[in-house]
Every structure is written in structure tokens, then in C-alpha cells.
Amino acid sequence: MKSETKQILEAVQSGELSVEAALLKLKTEPYEDIGFARVDLHRKIRQGIPEIIYGAGKTPEQIIGIIDTMKKNAQERILITRLSAEAAETIRQACPLQYNEEAKTGVIGGFCTPDGIGKIVVATGGTSDIPIAEEAAITAEVLGNEVTRLYDVGVAGLHRLLSYKEEIMSASVIIAIAGMEGALASVIGGLADCPVIAVPASVGYGASFHGLSALLSMLNSCASGVSVVNIDNGFGAGYLASMINHMEAKE
Asked: Which backbone phi and psi does 56 adopt, to 5 degrees?
């Protein structure tokens, strides 16, 4: 990858290639086909964030193959989501891996220094929502964000949330994870002056329908500035929060 990028830049320097054509090449240049996967090597150039491995449904050997391809092409930091403890143990024998069993995430290359414009707050309605919250928080941290965790601050005891008004009102982005009726996102949305990303959790009794009730409640939130990701999608929330926290004005 480095050599190909260098050739493009040298062509620009010599006048053989325009800046616009080079930019297009850099945005559309290669992936590597390793048989069971086509690893996107230029996603960071296009989107600012390199490809992240979804671990569920992949064998440890497949994940190791993808990791090797990424590392060979100078991707220093790799995040794996929905990774089982058994697969993590196999991968750890092939390369250094920081595994969080609660979040089911694996990190290779460690965490970078936060460089976002502010803090991301990750809040949960209850303790049962923490695994999804940790997936969101670790995703955001790997992508270079400072994260504040506010766990078990749901509306059943509203005073718990209100004791953290300073953290809520000073955040750049807030991720609100809740099951049951999913009211936490609306309450936070009514307090905060920043985007709120709601994550419905598949936690609750029968009529919660494995998170569907929370999803519909969050979609129908009367608080402005609340967006919603899919049920239990902590990764998607952490990724989106990082994008918001790294926004810059485009010239």
C-alpha cells in the first residue's frame, strides 16, 4: 500500500497526474482478496477510520488472516467486535490482543491518545445494559475519544441521572443505552445541548420484545437531537459518536 501511494504522489510531483485524479485514485485504490475476505485497505483514506473486523460468524483462523493482511499493509491499530472468548484465546496465541469479555471486543495495537473536540458520555439505564455500553465506549476510545461512563442512571431513579448534570451538559456527544421502554434517551435529550445517540437494548420483560419496544420509543422521542441506531448496536453508536466528535469544517 505504501509503495502504491508513493507512486501516485510521485506522479503528481512530476506532473503526470493531476491532484484531482490522484485523490480519486487514493479514494478508490485497492482491497486485498485473501479468498475468504476482501480486506479494504483504503477505508481510512476514504472515511478517516480503517476497516474494523466483525468477529461473529468468523473462525479464529479467518480473523487472524484478516489481521495479518491489515498489519502487512501498515494498519497499526485493529478493533474486533463481537469476539467470543474462545476465539480471542486462539488469536492471542498469534498476536498480542487486549480482550474485553464483557464488551466482546478485541484490540490490537492499543489505544491512541484522544484527539476529539470534546468528551463522549456513555450512559445506561441499568447495569444489564453495560455490555452494550462497553462495546460503544471501547469503540470510541480506540477511535481516539475521551469517554465518560455513567452507568445505571435510568429513569426509575431519575435523581441518579440528575446528579451528573455537569457531565451531561459539557459533553460533545452522548450515547444513551436503555432497554425496557427506552425512556433514558428522551430524558437526556431534554437536558443536553449536543447530539444524543440512542441505543435500544434487548433487555426487559416479555412486552419489551427483545428491544423492539425501546427501539420504537426512541424513534418516537419528542426530544430534538436524538438519533437511533439498531438494537444492541453499541459499536455503531461508538463509531458515529467518534465521527461527530472529530467533525471539522470543510473548506
From this structure: -65, 135
